[in-house]
Amino acid sequence: MAESRRALRELLRHRCDPERSAVAELLTSELVTNALVHTDRDAVLTADVGPWGLRVEVRDFTAREPRPRPQTGNDTTHGRGLMLVECLADSWGVHRHGVGKSVWFALGPDTEADADAA
């Protein structure tokens, strides 16, 4: 997981502000964790960044669909990953493949970095 965050941080280092990069790292970490914990198999991480923003996708090889879990009254640390993705990403979803699925999120363009570049 640390390797995934490090790779994404390096990709975004000169492309967006540190706060936006931190959100992307958190969401990526959540998707990778979900894929590894809930599938017992490998996951494939891809990230695309451009003037339209950032799209991160984590593919696994099981058909089970992820679902955000509603918060219960207890203080558990499990089950919050997709709720974070749902709250912090501009959009997210699931794309089915012949074998498995990809869970993705998108963050729109970094308007602060765009203003600095102008």
Proportion of residues in β-strands: 15-25%
Structural class: alpha+beta
Strand order of the largest sheet: 1-2-4-3
What is the distance, rounded to the nearest whole angstrom, between the alpha carbons of the first and last residues?
35 Å
Query: Which percent range fits the helix content?
Result: 40-55%
- What integer value in Å does the Rg equal? 15 Å
How many distinct helices? 4
Average the pLDDT over all residues and give the rounded result: 84
Largest sheet at a glance?
Answer: 4 strands, antiparallel
Estimate the global geometry from the Cα principal axes.
globular
Poorly predicted runs of 5 or more residues:
113-118
Question: What's the quick description here?
Answer:
The protein has helices spanning 2-12, 18-39, 81-88, 111-117, and strands at residues 44-50, 53-60, 91-96, 101-107. The chain has 118 residues and is of the alpha+beta class. A four-stranded antiparallel beta sheet has the order 1-2-4-3, with helices on one face.
